[in-house]
Amino acid sequence: MRILGIESSCDETGVALVDASGSATPRLLGHALHSQIEMHQAYGGVVPELASRDHIRRVLPLTDAVLAQAGLPLSAVDAIAYTRGPGLAGALLVGSGVACALGFALGKPVIGVHHLEGHLLSPFLSADPPEFPFVALLVSGGHSQLMRVDGVGRYELLGETIDDAAGEAFDKSAKLLGLPYPGGPALSRLAQQGDALAYKFPRPLLHSGDLDFSFAGLKTAVLTQVKKLAHAHPDGPATLHLADPLSAQQKADVAASVQAAIVEVLVKKSFMAIRQTGLRRLVVAGGVGANALLREQLGAACAQAGVRVHYPELHLCTDNGAMIALAGGMRAQAGLASGGAADAGGYPFDVKPRWPLSDLGLPANPAG
What we know:
Elements: E1 2-7, E2 12-19, E3 27-35, H1 37-41, H2 48-70, E4 79-85, H3 89-106, E5 110-114, H4 115-121, E6 134-139, E7 144-151, E8 154-160, H5 166-176, H6 183-191, H7 216-231, H8 248-277, E9 281-285, H9 292-305, E10 308-310, H10 321-333
Parallel strand pairs: 1-4, 4-5, 6-9, 9-10
Antiparallel strand pairs: 1-2, 2-3, 6-7, 7-8
């Protein structure tokens, strides 16, 4: 079964073709991605209208490129999967519209995919795919969640952020340091030159006894520290930007200390989830899953505890069409494609900008 996947939830247009035939390991046949980072940098963040217009320009040329990579005609596609939500409404409608138009023209089924389910299942395209059941740490720009995963569509929420997500903490701290958009990767690169022990930032909810996250307090602590450093500088109060008077080393030390705080919380909460569930397999997915320090510390902790840890390939950590194609194929194989999907008899052209993963429906571990 060849699934064409279209991702357009925010600021990246992704198209991919995945072969999810039978019981064989899914194979990525073609993959193309266009990032809008350069376009949005001038505004310091994503401008929804610009994002939507750019998706319109990119999606069909990317589709052509993917089919050329795979050496297959469009008629060889068995189904089209698209990101139905969550995300920016206008951006989602681009992917939905193109998917439904292609499906109608080809007479092929169209499958609406939950963006987070795409991230959750993306490690199945890696060289070291996981096996069910496992604990999943979903960490991206807008989400920080721990899930128990017993199969496709069988998810139990163990804990989630009650305010800012880990990715937001990275991005907002980077902005306070005057780093360019997107802030998270820039902060991680700067942190390599800093001292993670220079500033003692809080580890919110680290000892709460539950599996929830909170990073808003960390952001406030970073703001307070940057202000303190800025005002200690003779030219501090007169500068246009708060972080301007900080030295390069001070910025690097703040970045390293912020990253250390976020990573410590993510690692310790993940192991709390492992202990509570009794499972011995951990999957890490989402953009923050590409963070080198997080991978290093989780890898070491898992090796010591005898826990297997799985990640998507680095190029599949950010939003991409491959994860959408894969999730669509796996849902179809599990007989769940009707959950948020159109079939060959109908193309509803709908999106869900707000769509909790828990709405997908099946219990994590049905009786037996």
